[in-house]
Amino acid sequence: MQIEIDKYMELLDPEIEKPVTKQAFSKARQKISPDAFKALFEMTSETSFEEDAFGRYKGWRVFGIDGTGLQLPKSSDVLKYFKQAQECFCPLARSSILCDVITGITVHACIGTNKKGERKLAMEHLEYFENFKKKKDLIIFDRGYPSKQLIEHLSVNNFKYLMRLPKGFNAEIDSCNKQDFFVTISGCKVRVVNVILSTGEVEMLITNLSRTFFKTEEFQELYRLRWGVETKYNTLKNKLDIENFSGRTAITVLQDFYATLYLSNIVAAIKTESDEIICESNADKSLKYEYLTNENILIGKLKDKFILILMNPNEQDRALLFDKFMAQISQHRTPVRPNRYFERIPKNSSRGRCRVKKTL
After folding, report:
1. What does the pLDDT read at residue 49?
2. Are 230 and 66 in contact (CB under 8 A)?
């Protein structure tokens, strides 16, 4: 932490004489409300609601909702705030995001105790999204979310949705051999689409999208878009290191959580623009693969460059610095190899569970 503080202060004022200690920094940040970081994050998400800010899939804006556990630093303050037992060896929080699966912009995020279920957090997303939703918005859920209450809520409030069903959720659906049919759940007319995967597994999907909008054969590709949420968590956890909290209090945990989400939206917005530059430059080339921005390099370069751009007092100079940054980033490209398959790690696997973090 001291190295990072020294680097930042040198960027701020190369002639600074008196260094800022990490103890002074840690004490001062306790006076800053996490709501400030939350407001910055929400500013990036609400700006993305502007017309044509989102990507489209056949004219639809497509979103995904998913939750995950976050490993927390162990301290009495953190354990108390997140309602963990004092003897807890590996304290966890429950977080959830509503994400645009095409651009990677996180629209809304929640963090709470590990005892708070994913469906309850999903309801918070839907309440927030109520003010922004449009007719051609679709929200995708995985098979951990279906419930009669959630299906009824989505239908009554005119949310278009697509969910994967677990086996045994509904006897009528399990017993029907049709590929595309309708059933009634809690008084709501629901369309069921059975998708046969390349592995032979049958993927049961339910939706309130009519056949006017999407044909049966389009649903495999449509549901696959949910992978954008998994990709977002990969960025948050493995590239932006959201679980590597820089303090041991509840305030610092919340500050880091929303600051990382803010940064991830900046990364997503820059990557979207850089991807467009790459696509335009490759438009006339005959390439084996599609190429997109290397996100790892983007994140690495953004750390210092973004601060320098923001700190520049001259608006014209800021624009020139940003254009130069975009030109550099768009040169770092990675191929997109379609139809790659990775084995899914079961949720009850010991891999990826509580681990000892590196200390600064």
Report:
1. 63
2. yes
Mean pLDDT per 10-residue section of the chain, whose length is 360 residues: 87 81 93 95 79 76 95 93 85 95 93 91 94 91 93 94 93 91 92 88 92 92 93 95 93 96 94 91 84 93 85 91 92 79 48 44
Residue 190 CB-density burial (10 A; 0-12 exposed, 13-18 middle, 19+ buried): buried
Q: What is the pLDDT of residue 351?
A: 43
Reported pTM: 0.88
**Beta bridge partner(s), residue 13:** none
> Residue 93 corresponds to which amino acid?
A
β-pairing verdict for 188-196 and 180-185: antiparallel
Q: How far is CA 14 from CA 5, 88, 214, 304, in A?
A: 13, 45, 59, 14
Output the CA–CA distances (angstroms, integers) from residue 312 to 37, 40, 301, 306, in the order listed. 21, 19, 17, 10
CB 120 within 8 A of CB 110: no
* Separation of CA 45 from chain center: 11
Helix 315-329 vs helix 250-281: crossing angle, to nearest 10: 70
β-strand partners of 160: 138
8 A C-beta contact, residue 94 and residue 118:
yes
Q: Confirm if 265 and 106 have CB atoms less than 8 A apart.
A: yes
pLDDT at 51: 57
User: Cα(171)–Cα(84) distance, rounded to whole angstroms?
Assistant: 38
One-letter amino acid for residue 16 of the chain: I
